[in-house]
Amino acid sequence: MAELLSVRGLRAGYKQIPILHGIDLAAHAGEILGILGHNGMGKTTLLKTLIGLLPASAGEVFFEGADIAALAPHARARRGLGYVPQGRDIFPGLSVRENIAMGAASVGRAVPEAVARAAADFPVLARLLERKGGTLSGGEQQILALARALAGEPKLLLLDEPTEGIQPSVVEEIEDHLRRLARERALTVLVVEQDLDFLANLADRVLVIQKGRIVRELEPRALHDVQTIDEVTGFIT
Fold this sequence. Notes:
Layout: E1 3-14, E2 17-28, E3 32-36, H1 43-51, E4 58-63, E5 66-67, H2 73-79, E6 81-84, H3 96-105, H4 111-121, H5 123-126, H6 138-150, E7 156-160, H7 168-185, E8 188-192, H8 196-202, E9 205-210, E10 213-218, H9 226-232
Parallel strand pairs: 3-8, 3-9, 6-7, 7-8
Antiparallel strand pairs: 1-2, 1-4, 4-5, 9-10
């Protein structure tokens, strides 16, 4: 697989507080790469730095071979990066249709085609197109957030804790959608998550982040091994 994203020595933080201390990682076209770690270890900071919401203080970010470290978030989005933040962050006062339209129009994609594709990709949204985003259930909002990001036709999708507060049936639905899209469209997914089963079922590889550094790479099946997880992350005590 061709390398789509290459990150070298990435450092970032908030004002005088460093959070990332030299992140190195690579992701390939069509790969689903998991990032596992406790709260406060730098997972969200990593995604915000990759999408451009937080400036890097050092390091390189290459996307399709081009250095994008100095680009603004909207410029990265137009190059093919999509982002679903923690908490979904949909537009609650806009309809499902309008939310999807915003995702498409923000990067210059055709709106009618984007809405039709979202309805086909996510049948649960097809019957909700005129409903306000704020009236949807948590699971429906998460699927809408995913559909809105995909409306921009990204090549790389960054997901921050997509299973948070979501019922198991919807988590399984999201797994199925992401696996299918990665396979059919060569979509690369970088997903930050603490749900071990979700990552074990979805990811091709899992990177462990501790105190702003990638400390280990795991095979997804290792997430079912209690001793390994205890040693690496302390999730199980």
